[in-house]
Request: fold
Amino acid sequence: MNIEDTLLRRLAPQYHVRAIGRDDELGLFNLLTDVAASTGSEAPSRVGVHQVLERLGERLISDSLLVLSRTGSVVAAALIFLPPVSGQDDVASLLVAVHPNDLDQGLAATLMDWMEHRVREASGSCHTLQSMRMSCDPESLARVRLLEQQGFSPVRYHFTMRTSLSEPLIEMALPPDLNLVPWAIEYSESARTAFNRAFKGHWGLPHVEAAIWEQRFVGVPQFRSDLSWLVLFMDEVAGICINWGPLPQAEVTLSKRGWIEAIGVVPEWRGRGVADAMLTRSLNGFLNVGLTDAALDVDTQNPTGALQLYQKHGFVPSKREAIFAKQLD
Reply:
């Protein structure tokens, strides 16, 4: 009997387990929505769930599990994001969700054991793989306790920050040798290079290759080129601000929120008001198209002073998230 069979036999007999398929998108979305409602966190979007399944693609067969009740409802799920899908050569990112009605059945611990076995198995062919990571609300004591029992420890904290949009902001002036311009596709590769320079050495942000740039930043449906900005020195990209927004098609979870996905300035242009200018232009752009608030994620230990920049423009923390990690050695 292999390790997978051994682990899954620990589940109560009322459950059926299999890999996640593309046809499970709605069931997974409903599971994550119920989990979010029970924890008071933000509900997922159907589009976001679709993108997760698309990212894994054929890997769903080996790197995911779905737990179903006897009636066929989805009660738990586990997904593993190995390199390069994880976005980092040395990290496997994990996601586990258990329906609030089934929390006492040992599903989370069993699924985490299976995920660790799968990651260690994969590390045999991916010699750079060094650790597993999972995010967690640090106020969720049961979740924190489970992660610690599984050998994970907190290594970083992130804030989700939000601000309301009601009145236009006074836009920051740039030095005369710099120009703030709308996103243009012909600058995408230069913007990727600028992104890598701006975030070099930042925790959890590896060098982004062209494929990941498309898959994770500017090729996703929620990317809004009409609301994203570049700062140019002649034809050289000095700063980038990639913004996301609600999709044109209506859906139940459609919000009026703009999302600042990435804002960065290459080192030699820092201290010139570039980030200020891009941020105020972005917030005004959101307001002009009828959005009511803006949000972003920030590393609380960001070395460039990003937290202070966002606070200056009215952003306040709305959620704190801990990143837990476990080394594979």
